[in-house]
């Protein structure tokens, strides 16, 4: 799945398949300017920062179990968000500090470091990497991902795929080749 935020005409947090199909709103009320977004892949939670409402909130992948992790003026300048173990990591763009927020006890907020021009944050750790299994977009014997001549996108599950073409090309009737 792909998770993303939008604060155009109607602010929301959404999810869809990797090929863009099955687009679903998971948060569409009491939300104004969702910016940073992070996933807890283990427990299947979505965290986001709303800089207009000064809140950091969480829901499960279906948009249920919503609650506020932390609220207040300190949220206004947060950009970038990452989840690791019991903590959320974020960047305060006002003073360029890296913050660590306990996602179960929001009174536990620590400034860890300062970085010039930081706008995003990621945690790279072996335990955060999911095991790779065989999938529909694996390269075939001819070197084509999922048998697609240009782009292979996973669809509703790891066994299904959709072929797409680069700009200026159209998908052939076979659903794999681009012309």
Automatic annotation (TrEMBL):
Which InterPro entries does this UniProt record tie to the protein? Answer: 6-blade_b-propeller_TolB-like (IPR011042), Cueball_EGF_LRP_Nidogen (IPR050778), LDLR_classB_rpt (IPR000033)
Query: Where do the TM regions start and end?
Result: none
SMART domains xref list: LY
Q: Name one GO cellular component term.
A: plasma membrane
Report the superkingdom from the record.
Eukaryota
Q: Which GO terms describe its molecular function?
A: Wnt receptor activity; Wnt-protein binding
A GO BP entry is:
canonical Wnt signaling pathway
Q: Where are the LDL-receptor class B repeats?
A: 1-43, 44-87
Q: Which PANTHER family match?
A: EGF-LIKE DOMAIN-CONTAINING PROTEIN, VITELLOGENIN RECEPTOR-LIKE PROTEIN-RELATED-RELATED
Q: What is this protein called?
A: LRP1B protein
The uppermost taxa in this organism's lineage are: Eukaryota, Metazoa, Chordata, Craniata, Vertebrata
């Amino acid at each position: 799945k792909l998770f993303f935020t939008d604060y155009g005409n109607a602010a929301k947090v959404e999810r869809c398949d990797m090929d863009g199909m099955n687009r679903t709103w998971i948060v569409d009320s009491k939300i104004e300017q969702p910016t940073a977004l992070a996933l807890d892949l283990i427990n299947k939670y979505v965290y986001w920062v709303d800089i207009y409402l000064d809140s950091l909130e969480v829901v499960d992948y279906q948009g249920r179990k919503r609650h506020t992790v932390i609220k207040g003026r300190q949220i206004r300048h947060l950009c970038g968000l990452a989840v690791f173990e019991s903590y959320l990591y974020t960047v305060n763009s006002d003073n360029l500090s890296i913050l660590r927020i306990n996602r179960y006890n929001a009174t536990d907020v620590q400034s860890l470091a300062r970085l010039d021009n930081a706008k995003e944050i990621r945690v790279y750790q072996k335990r955060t990497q999911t095991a790779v299994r065989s999938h529909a977009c694996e390269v075939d014997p001819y070197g084509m991902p999922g048998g697609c001549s240009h782009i292979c996108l996973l669809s509703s599950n790891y066994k299904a795929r959709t072929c797409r073409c680069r700009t200026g090309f159209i998908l052939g009737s076979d659903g794999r080749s681009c012309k």
